[in-house]
Amino acid sequence: MVFFRSVSALSKLRSRLVQQSSLNSSVRWLQIQTSSDLDLHSQLKELIPEQQERLKKLKSEHGKVQLGNITVDMVLGGMRGMTGLLWETSLLDPEEGIRFRGLSIPECQKLLPAAKHAGEPLPEGLLWLLLTGKVPTKGQVDALSKELQSRAAVPDHVFKAIDALPVSAHPMTQLATGVLALQVQSEFQKAYDKGIPKSKYWEPTYEDSLSLIAQVPVVGAYVYRRIYKNGQIIPKDDSLDYGANFSHMLGFDSPEMHELMRLYVTIHSDHEGGNVSAHTGHLVASALSDPYLSFAAALNGLAGPLHGLANQEVLLWIKSVVDECGENMTKEQLKDYVWKTLKSGKVVPGFGHGVLRKTDPRYMCQREFALKHLPDDPLFQLVSKLYEVVPPILTELGKVKNPWPNVDAHSGVLLNHYGLTEARYYTVLFGVSRSIGICSQLIWDRALGLALERPKSVTMEWLENYCKKSA
Ligand SMILES: CC(C)(COP(=O)(O)OP(=O)(O)OC[C@H]1O[C@@H](n2cnc3c(N)ncnc32)[C@H](O)[C@@H]1OP(=O)(O)O)[C@@H](O)C(=O)NCCC(=O)NCCS
Q1: Is 258 a catalytic residue?
Q2: Which stretches of 194-290 are DSSP H helices?
């Protein structure tokens, strides 16, 4: 990738890592930092001009290159397979799954700094990677942790705005309300009102984005404690990293839950640009709405059952299986239950995907976590049975393009194991994680001066006439 300048040091480590990777040609990403610079902002400041030049060159030299044909099916089918967005922080391959700045999930687990030896990656490290394209050092990650802590104070009016909602409001409604209430502090909006030039848009976007990422776990934890723990709020603990502190504020302090939260936030952060939440954030921000407005909109998309809410649906569905068939159900009973779900016109939550065509690597790493930490958990064993039972049934249906499990099929049983049993809350965890990916890209959107989104829409009549003419 031209993105990175070559680095000569640490070549031993590099060649070891290259050997570990089975991805020969795609190891171009691997650039280990030699810089001792701990400041993310100044790193970005250095990177942005070269990326602006790169985009300019791409436009001027290749602007007219065709990327494929748009069919009527694509227009009617939710724009599947239509390349139409620039999204720098991650790329999804249908067979292989997500890569964050070129790194697969197992590679992130190996390369990103962890809280302990061979532990799960720290989400701050992923944030650094998404923003700079470089694997950070532990020192850089610690500095970023501190910076996020220093930005984490949430103004009181945000809690009051949430308190104005009934406690029975869905946790995602409460989270999105809180994020929208955070907007009054937007540095981007203030700077825009003062007439900031376009070339500087990225700076207040960076300020808003880091503050939002820092504050959203506090808001998320407030929602949880308000709904499920009689409003007994647990203050943040500045000695903890981002994932562990979030877990702590929710009320879960076991070392395993801290590890799970680090992994959870890391793998849910970003999934390229076309999914509903990422695309919504990007679209809204393209109108120069600030990161708070854009991310609140993204959360509303994440709250839909075909997207982020599926993690809630999965645990509720799994519990309904146990209620009907008991914990020690046979595979035959399980098959019958899956068919019953399908015949009642519902989807099997946690299976299928708009882009992926194999088991989601985000599912696999959660499965590995479960095999390591909770192999005997009865619900984990049920999830494993579903992995065997559901794909052949969905294949038999004949219309499902991807019968394999996605990220949401697994997360609930892990959280449930450590005591976070309230399934209705699960999408909030997903939302907190997504702030990292969506805001990272928003900073680059402004740094690269990406355009207002305005695709063309047509009517059925227009399509009918067009097809008649071209027949
Ligand atoms: C994720 C999802 C929305 C992708 O939708 P998609 O891109 O339209 O998927 P497909 O092209 O494979 O869909 C073709 C058909 O199979 C159905 N299908 C797909 N996944 C299914 C599932 N898990 N259970 C039952 N039917 C499913 C679709 O509903 C569609 O049916 P239709 O033609 O009658 O409308 C879909 O797989 C789904 O609803 N999964 C369950 C919800 C879920 O887990 N969401 C989280 C995604 S990360």
Answers
A1: no
A2: 202-228, 242-250, 255-268, 276-286
CATH number of the domain within which 401 lies: 1.10.230.10
Ligand 1 mean position to 434 CA, how many Å? 22
Which H or E run contains 332?
A: helix 331-343
Domain annotation covers residue 402:
yes
Sign of CA dihedral 252, 257, 259, 262: negative
Residues flanking ligand 1, CB < 6 Å: 306, 310, 342, 347-354, 394, 399-402, 406-408
Catalytic entry in 353, 360, 410, 417: 353
Total domains present in the chain = 1
Closest residue to atom 24 of ligand 1, CA basis: 347
Residue 134 lies in a domain: no
Transcribe 144-184 into DSSP letters: HHHHHHHT-PPPHHHHHHHHTS-TTS-HHHHHHHHHHHHGG
Three-state secondary structure call for residue 277: helix
Does 1 have pLDDT greater than 50?
A: no
Burial of 164 (0-12, 13-18, 19+ CB in 10 A): exposed
Nearest to 411 by CA among 402, 401, 423: 423
415, 379 contact by CB (below 8 A) = no
253 is catalytic: no
Indicate the top mutation candidate among 353, 360, 383, 402 to test ligand 1's pocket, ranked by most ligand atoms within 8 A of CB.
Answer: 353
Count of CB atoms situated within 10 Å of the CB of 429? 26
pTM: 0.92
Question: Bigger pLDDT: 11 or 398?
Answer: 398
Question: Are the C-beta atoms of residues 82 and 70 closer than 8 Å to each other?
Answer: yes
Nearest residue by C-alpha to atom 6 in ligand 1 = 354
Whether 97 and 23 have beta carbons less than 8 Å apart is answered as: no
Q: For residue 133, report the distance from its CA to the centre of ligand 1, in Å.
A: 33
369 in any annotated domain = yes
Mean of the per-residue pLDDT values for the chain? 92
Task: Say how many Å lie between the CA of residue 350 and the centre of ligand 1.
Answer: 10
The pLDDT of residue 166 is 98
In a domain, 131, yes or no: no
Nearest to 153 by CA among 220, 211, 221: 211
CA angle 294, 134, 203 (to 5 degrees): 40
Eight-class DSSP state of 404: S
What is the tens place of the pLDDT at every residue in 78-102? 999 999 999 999 999 999 999 999 9
